[in-house]
Design goal:
With 346 residues, this protein is mainly α. It contains 14 helices and two strands, in the order H-E-E-H-H-H-H-H-H-H-H-H-H-H-H-H.
Length: 346
């Protein structure tokens, strides 16, 4: 069997390194604290099934339409399919997708578990001074109460709930798009490396400032909000917290409550910055920045985060993009070479 040339995978070296560090931290933490390591479940099942499945869907969306268009010239659909796969999906390119997907998966699982170890590793929470700081930022007013007054608690609550929960789908879908639909396969390394950095820095930030978030520290401030998908998610996370704190070995759930810093803000800003710096379509750039602003509003509106959490999340996103750009060589290329749009391959 011919050897696979992995030299094009060098831009993924930083992502692999970050994933390896986060894995070591997770294994060490589990051993020291006597806790299990869990694979986090999502809305579509375990991440080890969900993520490869999404990538396979993107691969199918890349190959099937091309094969259908080329079937006449190729002398049939099967021949066209083979030609498309042979020209577009070499072993080397598939290896790149595998390395990127594996790095993301390891770092994400590590992030979720490190976040889950927090209540066993650190005593107490710092919500009191964060709540006070929130009021200082807004001259004596609670940021969430200000948003409830300005935006209302009707339709806006449902819109912002959709925005917040959409993050659960945005991350794997944007990952699949970056790995499969980039014209230059190594360009996906920038986004993947930035995401792995976000997860790792985010997990470490929880240990710097252990906190629950306004909705758990002061639930009365949010009692007048309508029931939305966010409501169910917050209740689910609280139930998981109780289960895990009661006996972490008796449940498959992971503890998932942590306010500082906001990884929603970090990841969405990461995507927006990379879309901007890669020079993708104006529509996509505007869409990403609107999504970022709405994400910030939703984190405050529903009491997931304090203002400082969002500031710290933005800092993590910026640092992750900068580090990943330097590590992969893509940040310099994006400014100097003005490459063609990367998101959709033609």
């Amino acid at each position: 069997m011919p050897a696979v040339d992995l030299s094009p995978a060098r831009p993924y070296a930083a992502a692999v390194a970050v994933a390896a560090v986060s894995a070591v931290l997770t294994v060490t933490g589990a051993a020291v604290l006597g806790l299990p390591i869990r694979d986090p479940d999502g809305v579509a099942g375990p991440s080890w099934i969900r993520l490869p499945g999404i990538v396979l869907v993107f691969l199918a969306l890349d190959v099937v339409p091309r094969a259908l268009l080329a079937r006449r010239e190729a002398g049939g659909l099967r021949a066209a399919y083979r030609e498309v796969v042979a020209t577009r999906w070499t072993r080397e390119r598939l290896a790149l997708v595998g390395v990127g997907l594996g790095s993301f998966y390891v770092s994400y699982v590590a992030y979720r578990n490190l976040k889950g170890f927090l209540p066993f590793a650190r005593d107490g929470v710092d919500d009191t001074w964060l709540l006070t700081l929130d009021r200082v930022f807004l001259l004596g007013h609670d940021p969430s109460a200000v948003l409830h007054t300005l935006l209302g608690t009707g339709v806006s609550a449902h819109v912002l709930s959709f925005v917040y929960v959409a993050f659960l789908f945005f991350v794997p879908l944007s990952l699949g798009a970056s790995l499969v639909w980039s014209r230059d396969a190594t360009r996906g390394a920038w986004y993947v490396t930035a995401l792995t950095s976000c997860w790792t820095l985010g997990a470490l930030s929880y240990y710097l400032v252990p906190s629950l978030g306004p909705v758990y520290a002061r639930p009365r401030m949010f009692k007048d909000l309508p029931v939305t998908s966010v409501t169910h998610l917050q209740e689910s996370l609280l139930a998981n917290r109780v289960e895990v704190l009661t006996d972490p070995w008796a449940t498959q759930a992971l503890h998932g409550i942590g306010a500082f810093a906001s990884l929603h803000v970090a990841v969405v800003l990461t995507a927006a910055l990379i879309v901007q710096r890669m020079g993708l379509s104006p529509v996509l750039r505007v869409t990403m920045w609107v999504y970022f602003v709405l994400t910030v509003l939703s984190t405050i509106y529903f009491g997931w985060h304090y203002v400082l959490d969002d500031i710290a999340g933005a800092g993590i996103g910026w640092v992750s993009v900068w580090f990943a750009g330097r590590a992969t060589g893509q940040d310099h290329a994006s400014r100097e070479e003005h490459p063609a749009p990367v998101a959709v391959s033609v």
